[in-house]
Design brief:
heterodimer, A: alpha+beta, Ubiquitin-like (UB roll), Fumarate Reductase Iron-sulfur Protein, Chain B, domain 2, 3 domains, 15 helices, disordered C terminus, B: alpha/beta, FAD/NAD(P)-binding domain, Flavocytochrome C3, Chain A, domain 1, 2 domains, seven-stranded mixed sheet, 16 helices, globular
């Protein structure tokens, strides 16, 4: 049954304040509020605003994790203020005081309010975020598979809150990276059977050096997303469709690199670093290393390799001949490959269709 | 100064649909919203959109259900337009990209909804409003050259020339604090309802009746303001909405005795009777001591009967709401709900093209009252209302604008609004806090102007609202800045809310019968002889202090005569 009713408790909020008109640097501001522990951090902030200081700036509207306004960082982690319980936030704080800051990777306008237009919406606009279907429309609806609509509903569920953008490590290094939210939005069209320019979209996103292959697979966006949109998963699906289905060999060597990793692990059970770089550039076979681009890349990576050997992070033997794992382990790895590859369809993780009947 | 053929205030479904329709008709269009468009409250509409698209269905059946749902207060000419145009509109949404759920044949799937005689609700899981809103915004991004967007601009007043015509708005860029005149041949209000007048409410914090009050202040009459919908399933914890789609999928309502009490109140439709009926039934159970929870303040909504896979796929949002906001796994145990304020059937009175009685001013969506919902709106008819009448208002305003010259506006109103904001910021800290007045208003309305009403309570509410209006004149704020001064906007919104509240209370006092959402315990019967008519509230500006004036208008009846309403 529902959580047993708990009486209000005191919580202290430490908010990152910034007044662009003051000429002063950002500072921390503390207020103690009183609410039931399962109430949200947003409700706490709104109480502080109502009782103590109406000038605290935070965007908010629905209070139900559906409008996407109140993206912030709580104790350093991105999320929606309305979607985080006070007691949980207190438990995850370093000193019992709940820290609330503006999201990262976007300029701060005031207090917890960031400039989403300058970053997030610009990137969304970059992926041609509308259905491309200019032909004559059917009299009634398009007839499309039931599963396809359920599938893209996962990315339709994105509320554009920016939590994933806030925490994207690739974007921190390369601010031009299209990023998790916009790429998830792109999947919403690529996965939509009504869209007529699937291949053009994939070519565009593969060939762009800041496109789908710029993602570093760090899972930060998956953890950040309050709606289980799984942006990184959508980026990986874009890669699968671009590479495996559409055979797009992008100029960034992103697809070749992926294939190389897959093949090397299948063959050796572990990565073979010396093979990986040339193959990623020259093609996924032993001969790939003789490709001029591969040679060039290999040469340029020599200093790193030498440093690795000097610091004993790598041995010359392993660098040249790769890792060796016991035969039965290699067999086990290859069994996994057999199992996955023998499936008639690619296994696509979609949180909307993982429920089971009981 | 910026000028446009058609200027739209509000960027929810009605506003965005109006903008796209007006742009398609060739007008120069701008859309103004106090929040980013995808934050608009349409995003929270969960369950779906009604349209008679099943070949076995008929729009007339949809229209009849709507008329009956309205308790015969809806205008039938408008209802006929809405229901007959619904299938085409839903197909249009499908064509531009809405990801409607499909059946096994790949056609649009339909779910059951309250007050409907068959399954006719198209849906996207339980994020239908979000899906449609985001797809319309995709279209706005696509047509960015035809539609100028003023995102995070707050409207402080409607402009009116000497002849009474509306000639645009005064708006404040929230980010910079800059105030500007936005001139327009035609202005369309699409800024939503006034749910924040109540506390608790399912409505978002931004739903503060801005458009209703702005129109009222320049002389446009409001209609059906007494008709305030309480949704049967809102979370006891904090008033958040649990979609009617849950009951559409088979969830039941249980009282403290484990009884499926709707058998007593609506033996045929049970949990899928219209919302006013279900909310009253729940309230009666609670008042008679059969509520659940520590203080008997709730009712159980039992979703466990719905197959778990179906719940996870089609009711995902409320699975999350249950988990995150009530600590309940709705697939395994019942969740505690109660009736809560959800929707305002009333609004700025318009004709079937969205035109108000003020020249140059249109309204569409929850801000407007056409009236298609009359005394009670059916679930999944609100999205339809916003889209049909948003489009019609956009098309009509564009057609009219083509033959009009750009009006002249001075900057007198601009100077007045700048001074008004400066004055609020300068108020001494001697009165009450804006937030306190807002809280008292919400609690008052929820106590006296709720599911059950009576003369004494309504008069009490009226007195309180009048006092709060006075107190609001000197209510102070903390923020003295210009960049994102949300505090000062809150003070202006409070004024809007108080105007709406007064109109609601005055109309509720006026209607001495029970119909739809208005149930008067002192007048418990529907009285068609005296009250089969709309109550119009307009601002009386002739002599004395301005205040609400009551008049009446006829209900349009085309093919369905009033009859006893049973579910």
């Amino acid at each position: 049954m529902a959580e047993t009713h708990r009486p209000p408790e005191q919580f202290t909020l430490r908010m990152r304040r910034y007044d662009p008109e003051s000429g002063e640097a950002p500072y921390w501001d503390e207020h103690t509020i009183e609410l039931e522990p399962h109430r949200s951090v947003l409700e706490g902030i709104l109480q502080a605003k109502a009782k103590f200081d109406g000038s605290i700036g935070i965007r908010c509207s629905c209070r139900a994790a559906i409008c996407g306004s109140c993206g912030v960082r709580i104790n350093g982690e991105p999320g929606l203020a309305c979607h985080t319980h006070l007691d949980h936030a207190k438990a995850s704080s370093k000193d019992g005081v709940i820290e609330v800051e503006p999201m990262g990777n976007m300029p701060v306008i005031k207090d917890m309010i960031v400039d989403m237009d300058a970053v997030h919406w610009k990137k969304v606009q970059r992926v041609t975020p509308w259905l491309l279907n200019e032909g004559p429309q059917p009299e009634r609806e398009h007839i499309v598979p039931r599963e396809s609509m359920v599938d893209i509903t996962q990315t339709m569920a994105c509320i554009q809150c920016g939590a994933c953008v806030s925490d994207c490590l690739a974007m921190e290094v390369d601010p031009g990276f299209i990023g998790p939210a916009a790429l998830a939005k792109a999947y919403r069209f690529v996965g939509d059977p009504r869209d007529e320019e699937q291949r053009e979209r994939l070519l565009d996103l593969s060939e762009d050096p800041q496109g789908i292959y710029d993602c570093t697979h760090c899972f930060k966006c998956v953890e950040a997303c309050p709606k289980d949109v799984n942006p990184m998963g959508q980026i990986m699906r874009l890669r699968r469709i671009a590479g495996a289905d559409q055979h797009i060999n992008d100029q960034n060597n992103g697809h070749r690199h992926e294939e190389t990793v897959v093949t090397l692990i299948k063959d050796y059970g572990l990565l073979h670093e010396a093979e990986m770089i040339p193959r990623s550039y020259g093609g996924n076979s032993w001969f790939g290393k003789f490709h001029p681009a591969a040679g060039k890349e290999l040469l340029s990576s020599l200093p790193v390799a030498i440093r690795g050997i000097a610091k004993r992070k790598m041995s010359i033997k392993i660098a040249l001949f790769g890792h060796k794992i016991p035969a039965q382990d290699l067999k086990a790895v290859q069994k996994i490959y057999e199992k996955v590859e023998s499936k008639p369809e690619r296994y696509e993780l979609n949180l909307y269709v993982t429920g089971e009947d009981e | 100064m910026p000028s446009h053929d058609v200027l739209i205030i509000g960027a929810g479904l009605a506003g965005q649909r109006a903008a796209l329709a007006a742009a398609q008709a060739g007008s120069s269009v701008a859309i103004v919203s106090k929040v980013h468009p995808v934050r608009s409250h349409s995003v929270a509409a969960a369950g779906g959109i009604n349209a008679a698209i099943n070949v076995a269905d008929d729009w007339k059946s949809h229209a009849y259900d709507t008329v009956k749902g309205s308790d015969f207060l809806g205008d039938q000419d408008a209802i006929e337009i809405m229901c007959s145009e619904a299938p085409k509109e839903v197909m249009h949404l499908e064509h531009i990209g809405v990801t409607f759920h499909r059946n096994d044949s790949g056609e649009l799937d339909l779910r059951a909804f309250g007050g409907a005689s068959m399954k006719r609700t198209a849906y996207v899981a339980d994020i239908t409003g979000q899906a449609i809103l985001h797809v319309l915004y995709e279209q706005l991004m696509k047509h960015h050259e035809q539609v100028e967007r003023y995102e995070e601009w707050f409207v402080t007043s409607l402009l009116q020339d000497d002849s009474g015509r509306c000639t645009g708005v005064i708006a404040r860029d929230v980010r910079s604090g800059r105030m500007e005149v936005l001139k327009a041949k035609n202005t369309i209000l699409a800024s939503g309802g006034a749910g924040q007048v109540y506390s608790p409410t399912t409505n978002a914090l931004i739903v503060t009746g801005d458009g209703i009050a702005q129109a009222y202040r320049i002389g446009a009459p409001l209609m059906d303001m007494e008709m305030v919908q309480y949704h049967p399933t809102t979370l006891v914890e904090n008033g958040l909405l649990i979609t009617e789609g849950a009951r559409g999928e088979g969830a039941t309502l249980l009282n403290s005795e484990g009884e499926r009490f709707m058998e007593k109140y609506a033996p045929n439709k049970m949990e899928l009777a219209s919302r006013d009926v279900v909310s009253r039934a729940e309230q009666t159970e609670i008042l008679e001591g059969r509520g659940v929870g520590a203080h008997g303040e709730g009712i159980y909504l039992d979703i466990t009967k719905v197959p778990r896979k179906r719940t996870l796929e089609a009711l995902r949002e409320i699975v999350n709401i249950g988990k995150d906001f009530a600590g309940v796994d709705i697939t395994r145990e019942p969740i505690m709900i109660r009736p809560g304020q959800h929707y305002i059937m009333g609004g700025v009175k318009t004709d079937v093209n969205g035109a108000t009685s003020v020249e140059g001013l249109y309204a569409a969506g929850e801000v407007a009252c056409v009236s298609v919902h009359g005394g009670n709106r059916l679930g999944a008819n609100s999205l339809l209302d916003t889209l049909i009448f948003g489009r019609r208002a956009g098309e009509h305003a564009a057609a009219r604008a083509a033959a009009m010259a750009m009006p002249d506006t001075g900057d007198a109103q601009l100077r007045e609004d700048v001074a008004m904001i400066d004055a609020i910021i300068a108020r001494p800290r001697t009165g009450r806090r804006v937030s306190e007045i807002k809280q008292e208003l919400g609690e008052t309305m929820n106590q006296y102007v709720a599911v059950y009403r009576d003369q004494a309570g309504l008069e009490q509410a009226h007195e309180i609202v009048k006092r709060l209006k006075q107190e609001s004149e000197s209510a102070y704020i903390d923020d003295k800045g210009t960049v994102f001064n949300q505090d000062v906007l809150g003070a202006i919104e409070l004024g809007y809310m108080l105007d709406c509240a007064e109109a609601i209370v005055v109309a509720a006092i006026e209607r001495k019968e029970s119909r739809g959402a208005q149930f008067r315990t002192d007048f418990p019967e529907r009285n068609d002889n005296e009250w089969l008519k709309h109550i119009d509230i307009s601002l009386d500006r002739n002599g004395g202090p301005p205040g609400p004036r009551v008049t009446y208008s006829d209900v349009t009846i085309t093919q369905w005569q009033p009859e006893e309403r049973k579910y």
